[in-house]
């Protein structure tokens, strides 16, 4: 059994990406530290790969690193390339992760309810079908030649502007056809879909696709126009997540052009602009290429953080090494070296070493030379060009290729790589530089400093509120505005909306839209064999897809509540509201007791609730004695009115007991 996971998103921006491409293989850039699930994390980016997997030479590599020590964490993460405009000098990697907590396996042995859990709410599906089929639509919109059928009462419940236009004294309120201007058909279609379902249609391309962003901008304007506050916040949330250098100014203009409700989007665009400006003056670099960890640990909820890696700075210096009387240094044998004075570049000490007769037996009769890192401690990334001065012209000429001169190498003071690059030259090749028996060597050393990574910052986010469509439909039922059908229940008048009833119940659809619907509209519809409180609770579920008073399939209920659930099950079966029927069965199953099991069994058999009936029989078979059951009024009523049901149940109980006893013996 898994606990709720913690989710986090960290945006790692590599500015001036091309400046990092000359890093050696296995050299990486580390993001700032960020926190998810109470643990510290970072992202490693290898511009030239890490040679960890065969066959992937020439590939970049990215890894997520757990910075918290002595911790075992189960992680699921995804890596997304958000913005790959390498020609513009920026690559952005979006690392989305889930940190899953786990509890002991013993909890998986808890007993399971006899009935399946009720299905998820089908209200959005019914509303979507109503919009698609257009059954009972009372108004038609024309948008740039495209036709959209809709229902006045639902639009009025979802938007105060639609309410004023379609149900008020305005012109549109008295017309069945309404022409719309200033909005694209696809935007209006998405607006209607949200008004009916409280969700957006699936859009191809994701949040970053230009067409999707354009749709979101259009929907934001439409939501502001029709005062649909939740849709407005949903659009703001989507646009704030997609803010980039290219679109932040557009979003800022859009937010300022809207109403005062767009302050969240304005705040997000300002934060992004402020962050982009701050990148021009990055903080001082931290040691070993790591950014300092943030001082505040992020909460274990959905968070998005960002850090930026700036191009590395370089330090360059030229050291001139003059060897006078060069011929006198030859003939001393292999491994006899002449070392220059010590020079410092970027805080590290270096020397140029020359072997006039070669070194280590390699390349005999050739002069060898290299740069030697003398400092101990950390590794150093540097490129080196070695030049010889022609004394006849005074020009220093490089003795290695331009590619090798520009190659960044990692000097490690702990191994042989502290000496690089090796240059070997024959005496004949040196003659032009030895006119006066003097060899002048120029060493141009360029040291790459560690890249600077900004501290982790929380990315601006806008949180859209939860769906409010059920609350709005509940208000519609309570206020009765626009109600067009009247019921008489035990002498009490109850009003409702034909569109909602037809959408939710096929029986209501047949009654209200069938051949007799015109006659029914003139007089109240009499509901027999049902109490007003039960019918009102039934209507509440029809409108909101939830039980009044907070009763649901997961909780216990008292005797009075169980009686109401029984009546609701009868109503659900009568009007074919399948989900309500399943919820009632689930509640009754979880509240079975010796005093009510016989009554529940009779109810289950009468209304074709097979699973509830099986649960009652199994409950009866688990009783240690039947005396308490036989003494109940429900058992006596069942024995008198439906003895066949009782006989069948007792027979099944006996078979079930035999099966259980035989399994125990085995």
From TrEMBL:
Residues 137-204, 483-547 form the BTB domain. GO terms for biological process: protein ubiquitination. Pathway: Protein modification; protein ubiquitination. SUPFAM superfamilies: POZ domain (SSF54695), TRAF domain-like (SSF49599). InterPro entries: BACK_BPM_SPOP, BPM1-6, BTB/POZ_dom, MATH/TRAF_dom, SKP1/BTB/POZ_sf, TRAF-like. Gene3D superfamilies: 1.25.40.420, Apoptosis, Tumor Necrosis Factor Receptor Associated Protein 2, Chain A, Potassium Channel Kv1.1, Chain A. Residues 316-445 form the MATH domain. Coiled coil: none annotated. CDD domains: MATH. Pfam families: BACK_BPM_SPOP, BTB, MATH_2. Residues 276-297 are annotated as: Disordered. Belongs to the Tdpoz family. This is BTB domain-containing protein.
